[in-house]
Amino acid sequence: MYIPKGAIITYNTWRYPDVSRFIPERFIDVNGALTDDDPAQCVFGLGRRQSTGDASTWFAIVAMLATLDTSPAKDDQGKVISFTPTFIAGVVRYLKLTRVILSSRH
Known about the structure:
By secondary structure, the protein is an alpha+beta fold.
């Protein structure tokens, strides 16, 4: 295959119908098993140019979960602030910034 100089290669996001909607069942086959089409792969790249960010992010999250306790944020009166997850749509869907309390495990 010949790729001309200056060409831009991108992920084929339009292969999924209604790509901007959160439809996780599109990655489950008729038997209830996960398909080979792993959407998480496109986040850190594909093939030889894949980023090490996947492993680095996993390590950072595991280290935080092992050493920190999380609890809901509280207002000035000490009452728990209610939380409703809100997601930002895009090529990668992510959670809108949320306040939490992180405290060191002893």
